[in-house]
């Protein structure tokens, strides 16, 4: 007598097996790891992003470079391990402990705005134009879990008064809070959108992990406070950066703004990419992901790349350029004048 199996039962078994496989795949694909994965982003022309009223046109282009970043899951982690120019970063190297997605994104966008302000000041001063810098208050871009500010303040709030006196800058706020001790309470005036709020917030000792071995240090519990700065310039300028965050486009912003403010074309017909922060002293600072930005710039057809000297950025950029066998020229910069000196000697592209 032959053994037989119920076709209906076999169908249910197969369905259950398929469901199990789908569930396992979803768990593997969606389960987050304590890492971020970065990869080459894009190189974007700045002329469509930055517009100085009445500014000069250019034949070539200045370009900002970006790095893609996102939370790593298991497949992405494994792929990054075997792929060139994909880097795994521990989560605590990217964002502060207890920092939410909202706080992280707010901090990145705020750093981009600060970068634009510094770049604008540098470029207008270089062009001999008048610049007025107006400090208006202090933005809250992060709140420490369990500290007094939690529940009283929100990311995006702007502190404009402390104890009835105006607060203009981050330095001013921190200096005045430094005179307080744990247990003291302070009265704050805060702007939240179109609303004006009054908040009384106590001071507490910072958690040991944040106290920097100084347990007497106390605060209200905000992180990365940033001065709200308004820049008034003539001619007017408009910068649209969409959702691009971080401070690393400072140098390239300055070059594009200066090029529009002055006669002639500093690009001389070339496609010029680069990266690096900039401060009002015209110093160019290091950034992360320099090798990935080299890859992005090469794919976009850049001929020249300005790389910060500090923190081995320039050395890493040269290494990546050799590795991908690009003809793109890597130029080291410490200050904005290094880039300007190179551009002055650059021959016009035929």
From TrEMBL:
Residues 242-346 form the Lon proteolytic domain. One of its GO terms (molecular function) is ATP binding. The chain crosses the membrane at residues 12-33. The active site is at residues 248, 293. It catalyses: Hydrolysis of proteins in presence of ATP. Residues 108-194 form the PDZ domain. Keywords: Hydrolase, Membrane, Protease, Serine protease, Transmembrane, Transmembrane helix. It is an enzyme of class 3 (hydrolase). SMART domains: PDZ (SM00228). Its EC number is 3.4.21.53. One of its GO terms (biological process) is proteolysis. Belongs to the peptidase S16 family. This is endopeptidase La. The lineage of its organism: Bacteria, Bacillati, Bacillota, Bacilli, Bacillales.
